[in-house]
Specification:
Elements: H1 16-29, H2 36-49, E1 53-57, H3 60-70, E2 78-81, H4 88-95, E3 99-102, H5 114-119, E4 125-129, H6 140-150, E5 153-157, E6 165-167, E7 173-175, E8 182-186, E9 200-204, H7 207-216, E10 221-223, E11 226-227, H8 238-248, H9 251-268, E12 282-283, E13 289-292, H10 296-308, H11 338-344, E14 347-350, H12 358-371
Parallel strand pairs: 2-3, 2-4, 4-5, 5-8
Antiparallel strand pairs: 1-9, 6-7, 6-12, 8-9, 10-11, 13-14
The structure holds pyridoxal-5'-phosphate.
Length: about 375
């Protein structure tokens, strides 16, 4: 049985009518740029997250870049982040003129390790960017304490973790992205809340950051042809906003289903490989389901075996950022961030989407088990 990584169409039929009505509505009004659906979605999205404001933007990469600018990150500043993430997190640090500084990751959550991050703080450090990788919440109590102690901005890359939650020490449950100064989100179709194309958002509860973000996404202007600064063309499309408002109403249910799939995977793979360990003070959003083996040889063999069986799989991410050619100028080399390097060589991700059936789950987990006894050639 073939199993895809994500099934983009599986979730569509149940909400088809709702989506088509919302989209037709936009077509009939032809208010394609910053139409009322954008403001409507921003309000709903902020309310969902418990943030004061949300600003819709063109994609999750622009969300990061504009969050950095609006948070006052400037040329020459250092920004500490994870080496184990998609390059959007770090390329946008460079694009605002700042310097990405990679610290090591935690061996259990695979997220930026606050102790390693603290060791990288210098006089030039301006911000820390925790990335809730795969949907696994970062240790936000530790990052909040670090930010406070060293007067740093805290920007959460929540692209993979919308609907994930974290319970602050002595506080209540918070949605990821609503804990730091800004949260950035991607509505790329394969993310937990996917648009029918590109989209993104930034949330914040800071009025100054909000005003700057609104200007940045629209050429630095509040009033047409009056430009207080230079900005970008990076607005969330009205059509996408209309789609997102519909899908937002269903997303919690989808995350529950993802968590159910994850529990079934974990049960079937007990003792076979390392499965995600979700801390008691966290709700994982399971954008991806990632397993780990004790050796690279076992991981590589499992990957090949699954591929041979028609089961989609992917390594997120095969080359840590400090080892990428794009960052040769930073002088990173093997041995610098040993936990991250060991993890990149031993993990891979299995199919994960809310509609995954028990039969598909069994096919996948049986194949993972079988891969330990069958050696696949090149
Ligand atoms: C997807 C992703 C982004 C970028 O989002 P786009 O909408 O594709 O620009 C940023 N950071 C992480 C961790 C992501 O997974």
């Amino acid at each position: 049985m073939k199993v895809p990584m994500v099934d983009m169409l599986a979730g569509y039929p149940p909400i088809k009518d709702e989506i088509e009505t919302a989209v037709k509505n936009v077509f009939n009004k032809a208010n394609f740029i910053l139409g009322e659906e954008v403001a409507g979605f921003e309000k709903e999205f902020a309310a969902h997250n418990g943030a004061k404001y949300a600003v819709g933007v063109a994609n999750g990469t622009d969300a990061l870049r504009m969050a950095f600018l609006a948070s006052g990150i400037k040329a020459g500043d250092e920004v500490i982040t994870s080496p184990f993430t998609f390059i959007a997190t770090s390329e946008t640090i460079s694009q605002v003129g700042a310097i990405p500084v990679f610290a090591d990751i935690d061996p259990v959550t695979y997220n930026l390790d606050p102790r390693s991050a603290e060791k990288k703080i210098t006089r030039k450090t301006k911000a820390i960017v925790p990335v809730h990788l795969y949907g696994m919440p970062c240790d936000m109590d530790a990052f909040l304490a670090l930010a406070k102690k060293h007067d740093l901005r805290l920007i959460e890359d929540t692209a993979q973790a919308f609907t994930g939650k974290y319970k602050l020490n002595g506080g209540g449950w918070k949605y990821l992205g609503s804990i730091g100064d800004c949260g950035t989100y991607s509505f790329f179709p394969a993310k937990n809340l996917g648009a029918f194309g590109d989209g993104g958002a930034v949330t914040t509860s800071d009025d100054r950051i909000l005003e700057t973000l609104k200007q940045l996404r629209n050429h630095g202007s509040k009033v047409r042809y009056h430009h207080e600064m230079e900005g970008f063309n990076s607005r969330l499309d009205t059509v996408q906003a209309a789609v997102l408002s519909v899908r937002l109403k269903h997303v919690e249910k989808w995350t529950e289903l993802r968590n159910t799939v994850a529990a079934k995977y974990a049960e079937a793979l007990k003792g076979v490989c390392v499965t995600p360990v979700v801390p008691a003070n966290a709700r994982h959003s399971f954008n991806y389901y990632t397993i780990r083996f004790d050796t690279k040889a076992k991981r590589d063999n499992a990957q090949k075996y699954l591929t041979e069986q028609g089961i989609a799989n992917q390594i997120y991410y095969p080359i840590a950022l400090h080892l990428q050619e794009a960052y040769a100028r930073l002088g990173g080399k093997r041995g610098d961030l040993p936990v991250c390097e060991a993890v990149q060589d031993t993990v891979f991700s299995l199919p994960m989407f809310p509609e995954l059936t028990d039969g598909q789950i069994k096919t996948v987990t049986d194949a993972v088990k079988a891969s330990l006894t069958v050696s696949v050639g090149k």
